[in-house]
Amino acid sequence: MLIEVADISKAYPQAREGESAAVVENLSFAIAEGEFVCIIGPSGCGKSTLLNMIAGFIPPDRGKICFDGRQINRPDPERAVVFQEATLFPWMNLRRNIELGPKAAGVAKTELHRIVNDCLALVDLNCSQQAYPHQLSGGMKQRAALARVLALQPRLLLMDEPFSALDADTREHLQDQLLKICAKRRQTVVFVTHSVEEAAYLADRVIIMGYPPNRCYASLRIQRGQERSRTDKQQMFNILRLRAALKDLSRQLPDGANAPQGCTQQDV
Amino acid sequence: MVSVALKREKVVVALKTNDKVWDYGSLFYGGASLLLIIFGWQVVAWAVDWWRGVPFPTPFETGWKLLKMLAGEQFLGHSIYLHTLSSIGRWLSGFSIAVFSGALIGMAAGRWRTFERLTMPSIQVLQLIPGLAWIPVAILLFGISDGATLFMIAVTAFAPIAINVAGGVKRVDEMYIRAARMLGLNNRMLFRTVLLPGALPHILSGLRVGLGSSWRVLVAAEMVVGSGTGLGYAIIQSRWTLDFAKSFVCIAIICGIGLIVERVIFIPLEKRTIELWGLRREV
Question: Where does the pLDDT of residue B164 fall: very low under 50, low under 70, confident under 90, or very high at 90 and above?
Fold first, then answer.
């Protein structure tokens, strides 16, 4: 297993002293190499927090997350992140943005040139490599952000609602482009989204996070035919299954009732 | 390669940056506001002449004197060039000390909370002290010498620079820092490629404020601890020589230098950085 999340919890301190609000509680799962995993759930359920913990930006309060057997304690280019809003550095043109990661890793100049050209070609941005980020459209920015992390040749790609701010056409185009790149590289991906359709289309497996206070988690494997489609019966069936699971997990429990134990990591 | 199969988007990227320092609009309004000042000055000169009966140098007399001085007429035993150059020299050395130390301390304070809490309160207090109040301190530390002038310039410019740099570094979006960490940047690269350019709008505004206040204190310091040369020294000495037109020339040169620094250094620098990057300018 590439990632093992073992019984982690995370709470954020509240305005009133001594109080804290749990965001993730007793969550465990594992992700295999080459798997495309989507994490869905309503807003505030801790999806982004989970992703930030896997990225190493914030530590869990309890439990541990291991990457390839080693505990994660800080960010690393092996676990590259595409953020919700493209965080390309505005003061560098596209090419320099993409070069930065390999340069920090000490890649030689000729090799650097080749890697950057390959990544620009992968996301189809050769023509705009001299442009500055503010001169690009939203879709182009996200493609550039993807190229920047692909240049790191990461073992794990973490994506935090990367397409949520884009229009439907661009989003679908980028989803297909992402799938193509992942297939080519056998890339392991953890993809956070709030869109059930997106999860059903992209993922091999979906981890569903329930809404507080009854924090339950479920893991659901997506079944699909030979071809991936947005409109076929299988896709519709997957969407319905996801919706049902999401609704089930987000059901409000009566006051005083505890979240049912043992519902973490169940297969729906 | 996937790109061959994919339809390639033609992207036309227009660099909207305008490299010209002067455009006709700003030239027109600049000229008009200059004319307005000259007109006002002329009116005051007439009024003073009529009302108090003392000769107040008019814009025309001052301009004529400027030409004569540029042609080599001496003032207090030195050419106007020497006065100007010695003022600029003092200012450059003092300001460089302020930029270097202010940037260093500001960067550290912006990045490390403990350092900020340790240093920033005293720097804030420093900012409240008027430049001229440093005169006794400067004289006690350095005697009546150039050292005292440099000290006053450096200490006046230091606070606004340090405060703005610290604020700029602190306001660099946390997401950029996370992205840099994720890309594997070490501390040195983080400073050079993320924090420094990210803080640039604030840094430039700090340099502007520092420049203005240090230029003002330079002239004042030269008046008090001046050592025979410099524009400030020349202005104050006209009390005794009663050659007011020449001191007006010095004032005009001071304004001119400020304008040139703004036009030749700050505006082109902003166009090449902040505007090109699409960042917001901090005023």
Answer: very high
- Residue range of the domain that includes B6: 1-56
CB-based burial, A25-51: b 16+ in 10 Å, e otherwise: bbbebebeeebbbbbbbeeebbbbbbb
Same-domain status, B91 and B219: yes
pLDDT tens digits along B246-261? 888 888 898 888 888 8
Q: Which of A101, A135, A153 is the last residue of a domain?
A: A153
Looking at the structure, do residues B159 and B46 belong to the same domain, yes or no? no
Select the residue from A84, A91, A119 to test the B interface by mutation, using most B Cβ atoms within 10 A.
A91
Q: Among A110, A136, A153, identify where a domain stops.
A: A153
Q: What is the pLDDT of residue B35?
A: 92
With a CB cutoff of 8 Å and minimum separation 6, the contacts of A266 are A218, A219
* A254 has a pLDDT exceeding 60: no
State which of B28, B56, B84 marks the end of a domain.
B56
Q: Above pLDDT 70, what percent of chain A?
A: 91
Tokens at residue B204, please? 């430039």
Instruction: Report if residue B282 sits inside a domain.
Output: no
Q: Are residues A89 and A141 located together in one domain of the fold?
A: yes
| Whole-angstrom distance, CA of residue A168 vs CA of residue A195 | 12
Q: Is A148 on the interface with B (CB under 8 A)?
A: yes
How many domains does chain A fold into?
Answer: 2
Helix H or strand E encompassing A36: strand A36-40
Q: What is the pTM of this model?
A: 0.79
Q: Is B65 within a domain?
A: yes
Round to whole Å and give the CA distance between B181 and A68: 20
How many residue contacts between A and B have a Cβ separation below 8 Å? 97
Q: Are B233 and B226 in contact (CB under 8 A)?
A: yes
The structure tokens listed for A44 are: 């505030």
Dist. CA B76–CA A241, nearest whole Å: 93
B6, B189, B200 member nearest A124 (Cβ) = B6
